[in-house]
Amino acid sequence: MTSTADRTIWMAGHYGIMTHWLFPGILPEKGELSQTFTGAVNKFNLERFLEDFTASGADWLIFTIGQNSGNYASPNSVIDKYGGKGHCSERDLVFEVANGVHRLGKRFIAYLPCEVAGNQALQEGFS
């Protein structure tokens, strides 16, 4: 039998952080809010984010795939099939962030909310 300590060794470190990346509502470094989900995902500055994450000193990162908006920053054929096209980005931002975190020798957790805000298209598709 595996002990609890053995199953949690991957979380070793001092602390982690959780980031809720959302659309809309995230102010860009310059200019106006992106008017489209695709625009917001495409404007995400991965290198700047990874620099800030490194500067935080955290050993692991929890990053939202989406956050009760019906928009997901990663392609997903299952969501496209059951919820309809237009909910997922073409750019796989979640994968890019995960790879960047791993390159830094840190740990990554993808967080997917349950859509409690009631995105009707997704709820009907998955029912």
Write the layout of secondary structure elements.
Layout: H1 4-7, E1 16-19, H2 37-43, H3 46-56, E2 60-64, H4 77-83, H5 93-103, E3 107-111, H6 120-126
Parallel strand pairs: 1-2, 2-3
Helix pairs in contact: 3-5, 4-6
Order of helices and strands: HEHHEHHEH
**Distance, first to last CA:** 38 Å
Name the average pLDDT: 83
Name the structural class. Answer: alpha/beta
The tally of structural domains comes to 1
Total beta strands? 3
Tell me the strand percentage band.
Answer: 5-15%
Number of helical stretches of at least 4 residues: 6
List segments where confidence is low: pLDDT < 50 over at least 5 consecutive residues.
Answer: none
Largest sheet features? 3 strands, parallel
Explain what the structure shows.
There is one protein chain. By secondary structure, this protein is α/β, with parallel strands linked by helices. It has six helices and three strands. It has helices at about 5, 35-45, 45-55, 75-85, 95-105, 120-125, and strands spanning about 15-20, 60-65, 105-110. The longest helix is centred in the middle third of the chain and has 11 residues, at about 45-55.
